[in-house]
Write a structure and sequence with these properties.
It is a single chain. This protein is mostly helical and 247 residues long. It folds into three domains: 80 residues, no CATH class; 94 residues, no CATH class; 46 residues. Helix content is 45%, strand content 10%. It is built from eight helices and four strands. The strands form two sheets. A two-stranded antiparallel sheet has the order 1-2. It has a two-stranded antiparallel sheet with strand order 3-4. The two termini are 41 Å apart. The model has no long low-confidence stretch (mean pLDDT 81).
Length: 247
């Protein structure tokens, strides 16, 4: 019965019915009006505590042409409706404005440094001694870590570990996450090859993966060879007839 009502509400929203209509029809709790920004703060920059913070992202994805939506969160359903949008000009004296400006300036500087480092590395003008000098000049301590596997994400994020595993040893690289919230200058000192016992589960797993990779590579190579060696014409009418016969 409960989910039947949910389906009915979804249908009403699809038909263009608004929150007020749905609330009266199903005798829901009184409608509450909230005003907040994408950070869940009101015009005075105070956190709106009465509104579930995990729903804010959904609210800011509402299309004004379809202002009413049904949101599921933590085994609960919420009906939200966009009343209006406002562009509020913040004062420079607001701490949030200062923090936002400083964050953007920091990201601009960070991107510039990263771009310069990558350019030097790609042109083969940045080596281990430059790596050490950079640490001294910037006052940053070098931390030595060991990755036991590509899944070893206890220290670094998985996406950055994947970047490391694409490079050889004795190589300086720059790694970063998508939002540049974290970035590192890395020197890959040593890569150790590990042997796997034949009777272990990992051996069978990687052996099968290797077989599949080699098989796919051979098929792709042979297919490419045939395409270059022979000109192939397909009788689509006959092919369609075969399809119909097999169906």
């Amino acid at each position: 019965m409960y989910f039947k009502k949910i389906d009915e509400i979804e249908d009403l929203i699809f038909q263009g019915r608004n929150l007020d209509f749905i609330s009266k029809k199903y005798k829901l709790e009184p409608i509450k009006l909230f005003t907040f920004n994408e950070h869940g703060k009101d015009k005075e920059l105070n956190l709106v505590e009465r509104f579930p913070q995990d729903l804010i992202k959904n609210i800011f994805e509402i299309n004004e042409s379809s202002p009413t939506i049904l949101i599921e969160s933590k085994d609960m359903y919420f009906i939200a409706e966009l009343s209006k949008t406002e562009k509020v000009k913040k004062k420079f004296s607001d701490q949030s404005v200062k923090d936002d400006i400083l964050k953007k300036l920091s990201n601009i500087k960070k991107r510039k440094i990263i771009a310069e480092l990558i350019a030097k590395i790609n042109s083969n003008n940045f080596h281990k001694n430059d790596f050490d000098k950079f640490s001294i000049n910037e006052g940053v301590n070098i931390k030595k870590i060991k990755l036991n596997s590509q899944k070893d994400d206890k220290i670094l994020k998985k996406e950055m570990i994947d970047q490391i595993y694409t490079h050889p040893e004795k190589k300086v690289i720059v790694i970063a996450d998508i939002g540049l919230s974290e970035s590192f200058l890395v020197y890959i000192d040593k890569i150790e090859n590990v042997t796997i016992k034949k009777n272990s589960e990992d051996f069978i797993k990687y052996m099968n993966l290797s077989k599949n990779k080699i098989t796919n590579s051979l098929f792709n190579t042979y297919d490419s060879y045939l395409k270059k060696k022979y000109e192939i014409n397909i009788n689509h009418q006959a092919l369609d007839g075969v399809k119909s016969y097999l169906q």
